[in-house]
Design brief:
Blueprint: E1 18-23, H1 30-42, E2 45-50, H2 65-74, H3 78-81, E3 84-88, H4 95-109, E4 116-120, E5 137-140, H5 149-158, H6 165-170, H7 178-187, H8 191-208, E6 218-228, E7 231-237, E8 246-247, E9 250-252, H9 259-271, H10 277-283, E10 284-290, E11 300-309, E12 324-331, H11 346-354
Parallel strand pairs: 1-2, 1-4, 2-3, 4-5, 6-11
Antiparallel strand pairs: 6-7, 6-9, 7-8, 7-12, 10-11
């Protein structure tokens, strides 16, 4: 039986107006295809919600939402492609906002009060979001195959180390549609692939350092959001992960420092910005903890972001150092159009202080 002929899990007749299927689909595989077929068997049309949209490319999120939509379309016969609509949704790292964005997106596609079935599988903590849509009928399909997109990505990026991409893709023939493997083969010829392979290898080596620890590794970091008039201080990361991406200054908490002390030290080391104690105290606005389990590619990283407002003055001179390849003052009004250039969740750290997406 070929990938395109695999059996669809038994589904009820089309008793709903629209089916909704939510995922990241990085990489689209056969278990996801089975759920999509069930959704299409449950309603005349299906909305595929593409999570983690509008982000910078990373080994965890290598493909844009448009590329993922194309990957999914290619796995379907032409008639079914016409029945699928795509809804890209960003990761707000705020569950209530994310749920509201999904509901709003579906409502805009289907005004009124359509009968909606939400197709998915409640497997673990990563899928409890399925319970956040009580107004929709939940179709919990159960496990559709022991296939994990993270393992597929590891195979995809790891194959570049010894030049074995095509054999590696051939080994995945039982896990992903033939169209997905063809897409991956073609996409590997783009410059993005080589850059992400380097990022993947850096992350792999970093995680290997902690692989033997008996307890879960939790990193504590600090970040600084420094505002001066209508501008904010950003750096370009000089090292992997996130090399070349925008970020707010920050780094690891030192054992003998408070988070306040570490934040000011990192600010000085990465940007050369050093102010009098009285000035920094008067500029301090707030500190917020960001602890979403998926906020960082490095693993479980909890950060304390400190917000300082220097007021309407001439921005201080900057000198990039340490992990930063450059440091610059960027107009806050431009940040919303730069979302796909930010490392990890740093765009959302800025969003939480400046409301960059509040009007959406």
């Amino acid at each position: 039986m070929t990938n395109q002929q695999q059996a669809t899990p038994e589904a009820p007749s089309r008793t709903h107006d629209v089916a909704v299927y939510i995922g990241r689909f990085q990489i689209f595989h056969n278990a996801q295809l089975a759920l999509l077929r069930r959704a299409l068997a449950s309603a005349p049309e299906c909305v595929v919600v593409l999570g983690s949209s509008f982000q910078a490319r990373t080994p965890r999120n290598p493909f844009t939402w448009e590329e993922r939509a194309e990957m999914i379309r290619l796995a379907l016969p032409p008639a079914d492609r016409e029945r699928v609509k795509f809804l890209p949704v960003r990761d707000y790292y705020d569950q209530a906002r994310w749920v509201a964005a999904v509901k709003q997106g579906v409502a805009e596609m289907y005004p009124g009060q359509p009968s909606v079935v939400l197709v998915g599988h409640l497997k673990d903590a990563t899928s409890v979001y399925l319970r956040d849509f009580p107004q929709w009928t939940l179709d919990d399909t159960g496990l559709q195959g022991d296939i994990h997109a993270s393992a597929l990505r590891d195979a995809y990026f790891g194959a570049a180390a010894d030049g074995s991409l095509e054999p590696a893709l051939a080994a995945l023939v039982s896990q992903a549609p033939a169209s997905t493997l063809q897409f991956l083969s073609a996409w590997a010829k783009l410059p993005h692939y080589a850059a992400l392979v380097q990022e993947w290898e850096s992350l792999r080596q970093d995680k290997a350092m902690w692989a033997g620890t008996p307890y879960p590794v939790i990193f504590v970091t600090v970040d600084t959001v420094v505002q001066c008039g209508d501008q904010v201080l950003l750096i370009r990361r000089g090292r992997s992960p996130g090399k070349g991406m925008l970020a707010v200054p920050g780094g690891y908490l030192e054992p003998r420092e408070t988070v306040w002390q570490s934040a000011l030290r990192e600010l000085d080391e990465e940007t050369g910005l050093r102010l009098l104690d009285s000035d920094i105290q008067s500029a301090f606005k707030a500190v917020q903890v960001f602890d979403n389990p998926d906020r960082s590619q490095k693993g479980r990283v909890i950060t304390h972001a400190h917000w300082f407002d220097l007021g309407p003055r001439r921005p201080p001179e900057l000198t990039a150092g340490d992990d930063a390849s450059s440091a610059e003052w960027v107009p806050i009004a431009k940040l919303a159009g730069m979302e796909d250039q930010f490392h990890d969740d740093h765009f959302h750290i800025l969003d939480s202080f400046f409301g960059l997406t509040r009007s959406e």
